[in-house]
Amino acid sequence: MKRVSISLLAPAALCLLLSFNAQADSYPEKMGVKLATGVANVVTGVVEIPKNMMITSGTKGTVYGVTAGFFVGIVHTLGRTLSGAVDIVTFIVPTTSIVKPTYIWDDFNRETTYTTWRMR
């Protein structure tokens, strides 16, 4: 009997927590936005390479921008893609995106930065 009650405790607690979240205003909308952000960042992560080549070429010169910007773009591609994958996996918890700007097309001439998670 004790084993049965312990095995039912975890699902009951999970249902209780999910019911509180479902009652929050626009909770499904926040989950959808996080899922969409994750998918967009996974799909468009590779665009970080030409973006960083353009930004670096504009500030440091064409030759340096094409070479160094390419490698910086690869690092940011990995960062944006992995951040998007994390957003997809954890879309049930509505947090803000780690990547700034959130989408690659927002403020295209700004270098990508990374922040901490915050609740939406």
Quick structural summary:
With 120 residues, the chain is mainly alpha-helical. It is built from four helices and two strands; from the N terminus they run H-H-H-H-E-E.
If you had to describe this structure to a student in words, what would you say it looks like?
The structure is a single chain. The chain is mainly α and 120 residues long. The chain has one domain. The protein is 68% helix and 3% strand. The chain is built from 4 helices and 2 strands, in the order H-H-H-H-E-E. The protein has a two-stranded antiparallel ribbon. Helix 2 runs antiparallel to helix 4. The termini are far apart. About 9% of the residues have low confidence.
Structural class: mainly alpha
User: In one word, what is the shape?
Assistant: elongated
Taken in chain order, the helices and strands follow as HHHHEE
- Assembly type of the chains comes to single chain
The radius of gyration over CA amounts to 20 Å
The tally of strands reads 2
Strand percentage = under 5%
Order of strands, main sheet, comes to 1-2
Report the biggest beta sheet as strand number plus sense, adding barrel if it closes: 2 strands, antiparallel
Question: Top keywords for this entry?
Answer:
120 residues, mainly alpha, two-stranded antiparallel sheet, 4 helices, elongated
Layout of helices and strands:
Blueprint: H1 2-23, H2 27-44, H3 48-60, H4 62-89, E1 99-100, E2 113-114
Antiparallel strand pairs: 1-2
Helix pairs in contact: 2-4, 3-4
